[in-house]
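Internal tracking record. Fields below are filled automatically when a chain is submitted to the structure queue. Please do not edit lines marked as system-generated. If the sequence contains nonstandard residues, flag them in the REMARKS field before resubmitting.
Queue: standard
Priority: normal
Entity type: single polypeptide chain
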Amino acid sequence: MGYQAAKEANDASIEAETYLFTLFDDLRRNPGENLLSKLANMDRNEDHLTDEELAALTIQLFFAGFETTEGLIGNLLIALHNNPEEKKKLLADRTKVEAAVEEALRYDSSILKQSRVASVDLEIGGQRIKKGDYCHFIIGAANRDPARYKDANSFLVDREDLGHSSFGHGIHFCIGAPLARLETKTLLEVLLERAPNLRVTQEEIDYPQLFAVRKPLQLQVVNS
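SYSTEM-GENERATED OUTPUT FOLLOWS
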């Protein structure tokens, strides 16, 4: 990301945070029956979320609610376009749709990394990590690990070694995973039925200048 893009992103972040601080104050004066009202009006004790933490959570909920699934759908359509033999398998056998969604999550995840702060000293792969270190986990690399997957760089809808890290693990496993899977599965089933000849018309596809997110900024398709 260049300087200008980074500055614009930072300015937008400040603007969004300022708007949310005002919104939280309004919700405390006039609460409604919604999630943000409940979060903003939690017991005001030493364990409550600060407005900064609440703003970060709100932004996370906003983007996690649609952007990641939007990216998954776009990446899946591109993968099918670039692998017509795999698409033929889906057209011949719709029971492979769920597997195709999982393979898209592995092959071209819309989230490429997650970040964590080490809670203890530890060593991973010969690399010492100290308590408090900020660590980046590269999901895109893990999902293409040749030691884990046969033909790791190939998109295969009938892959036997299914599995991926795109939704995370443990207590931070994505709470929206079932919804994202259902939405993508439903859309793919409908497209295979109503637009079996769907293809991407763009020669070049633009992606965000963000390391953590991978999705087409726009996708032009036709059914012909």
